[in-house]
Amino acid sequence: MRVLVIGKGGREHALVWKIFQSERVDKIYAAPGNDGMAHLAERVAINYRDIERLADWAEENRIDLTLVGPEEPLVAGIVDLFNERGLKIFGPNKKAARIEGSKVFAKSILKKYRIPTAEYEVFMDPEEALEYLDEAHYPLVIKAEGLARGKGVVIATRKKEAFAAVDKIMDDRIFGSAGQRIVIEDFLAGREVSIIALTDGKHIIPLPPAQDHKPVFDGDEGPNTGGMGSYSPVSFISGDMEKRICEEIMKPAIRAFQEEGIDYKGIIYTGLIVTDMGPKVLDFNPRFGDPETQVILPRLQNDLIEVIEKVMEGRMEDLVLEWDKRTAVCVILASGGYPIAFDTGMEINGLEELKKHDNVLVFHAGTRRDGDKYLTDNGRVLGITVLGDGLFDSLNQVYQCVDMVNFNDMHYRSDIGFQAVEE
Length: 423
Known about the structure:
This protein has four domains: 2-91, Rossmann fold, CATH 3.40.50; 125-180, ATP-grasp fold, A domain (Dna Ligase, domain 1, 2-Layer Sandwich), CATH 3.30.1490.20; 191-318, 2-Layer Sandwich (D-amino Acid Aminotransferase, Chain A, domain 1), CATH 3.30.470; 327-422, Glycinamide Ribonucleotide Synthetase, Chain A, domain 4, CATH 3.90.600.10. Helices cover 31% and strands 27% of the residues.
């Protein structure tokens, strides 16, 4: 089998790493991939947003299965295009991918079908938004409607912060067209968790919960990022809570899509917050999370290709997932200044030392090779994942590994998972 993975970050490196273990797979391609995964997959020099070229290339090279990592090609309709060409591809179609492409659409589904979420208002006019914020009670959450790579969310504790967020999103357009409309919603207090699930449009199987850490600095301070680290499993999500999330949110969401005429197949990622009133939805995404994928896939003991084929063929009743009981923790190493402004081209040292540890995985997110050296090439540079005996052991080991790596102006959060350990 010839498999194509679309994307270039740490999530895609994790997918390639897991697919490489399948005896069913003869060859893996990554478009465009990154140099850190080049020993596992052949890189294809096509931008992951260029869905027409990707379809042409997949057709010409007789690709048997394509997996999509980033949200942009899904929202653009890559699944529909591949299906029209008779090419097998795993992921939700364009209609389904609107759950991430439009936060307004996602919130309307949640409201219509009474799936627990925060109360909200939608604004196209910045002046109307400011008038609303002038009389509002704080804190509030302000979200750009469209795709902002996980960064288009601002928690405003004061009016001044809220006004500044509206100016940046709607007037300055720091997230481009994603800021044409904004959602302003009530702030929900609680513990956040990510639930990634497989669905064939009728059945749904949640994967083990993971917790992401979005803000750039320790203590959840600073602007949101694409994710600074994650761990799985999550101790504060009990078996009973998992069942409740599935019954109150995941299954109703799939039924809602059916009612709306949306044939939702593939991955559904639900960002949740567990409040005193129960679990509530923060957002939906039609793809694997990043960096949640870097802690979930290392624990999956099944052949990922076989799992995906059963989902695509509607044979989920036969699907039993098996999991490594160890705890996985991923810490993201980022360029200083990320997610706002940062330099690249810094030499990365220490990667050879990490290869000596069997329970350590290094997923490249933003690197490039220069001779025998790796250089930084983006905001998020590396994800270091460790599998250990419980969260405390995994954290001790992962931060020892972090200390082995260095590059100029390297930044990382030093508190990934610490709140759970302290409980």
